[in-house]
Amino acid sequence: MLKLNNVHKTFNLGTINEKKALCGIDLVLNEGDFVTVIGGNGAGKSTMLNAIAGTWPVNEGSITINGVDVTAMPEHKRAPYIGRVFQDPMMGTAASMGIDENLALAFRRGDRRTLHWGVTKAERKRYYEELKKLGLGLEERMTVKVGLLSGGQRQALTLLMATLRKPRLLLLDEHTAALDPATAAKVLELSDQVVAEHNLTTMMITHTMTEAIRNGNRLLMMNAGKIILDISGPEKMALKKAELIEKFAEVAGEQEETDSMLLS
């Protein structure tokens, strides 16, 4: 479903501020894979996700989604293939529009725009049922402006919007980092539920080792723009936090104390 072949990204190329963010990334995600990505600040996690989404072009290599080479494709043309939830709950929704109107925008993603009613009765019925699955009572508040919702409610809504039309690839960009622990746990639970229900190929970036170990069927660890660990299957299921820190220290060749702080 996703293939990265020798992907490089360098910021401020040829200047004193040159920064190599991705250094020859090779990665294949099969359909239905739920991959968690972890690493310290500056490891290249968000750069890799933004390169996949088309937020900025890569300097070298290729990116393929569902057999389509999207390397030179601008961000808006990749939208039909990708669903995305950002770290900031304020992103991904239109604050001045109602919940139902936001869902209608998401439902029409990639479609040709025409003049007709914004939300049909049939659509409103579907949105009601989909919102009900979240268990947050939003189905009874469909005309409420999204700007009045809490951060957790907005993230849950954004998750629903990103998956309303099954994307080829779902990107979760530290989507619980700005939430309190209880709300973050609820959003993670909803994420697992949605991914399982639609068998979505998913990449989730996180700073929390516990989340990386607990969620998904595969775990990637990045350091200095490279993937240094790729753990899946029974090995991932049996993985413990202390073992993950030890593996990072062994592969990256850095002190465990530093790694513990970076990945805590």
Number of domains: 1
* CATH homologous superfamily annotation: P-loop containing nucleotide triphosphate hydrolases
Poorly predicted ranges: 255-261
Cα shape = globular
Note the run of SSEs as H and E: EEEHEEHEHHHEHEHEEHHH
**Fraction of residues in helices?**
25-40%
Q: Report the structural category.
A: alpha/beta
CATH class: Alpha Beta
The largest beta-sheet arranges its strands as: 6-7-8-3-9-10
Cα distance spanning the termini: 31 Å
Q: How many E strands?
A: 10
Largest beta-sheet details: 6 strands, mixed
CATH architecture: 3-Layer(aba) Sandwich
Helical stretch count?
10
**Mean of pLDDT:** 86
Query: How much of the sequence is in beta strands?
Result: 15-25%
What Rg is obtained from the alpha carbons, in whole angstroms? Answer: 19 Å
What features would you describe in this structure?
The strands form two sheets. This protein has a six-stranded mixed beta sheet, with helices on both faces. Strand 7 (169-173), helix 6 and strand 8 form a beta-alpha-beta unit. The protein has helices spanning 45-53, 75-78, 99-107, 121-134, 151-163, 181-198, 209-214, 233-237, 241-252, 256-263; strands at 2-11, 19-29, 34-39, 60-65, 68-69, 82-85, 169-173, 202-205, 218-223, 226-232. It is an alpha/beta fold. It contains ten helices and ten strands. Helix 9 packs across helix 10 (256-263). Mean pLDDT is 86; it is low at 255-261. The longest helix is centred in the last third of the chain and has 18 residues, at 181-198. The protein has a single domain (2-91, 151-263), classed as P-loop containing nucleotide triphosphate hydrolases (Rossmann fold), CATH 3.40.50.300. 37% of the residues lie in helices and 23% in strands. The radius of gyration is 19 Å and the shape is globular.
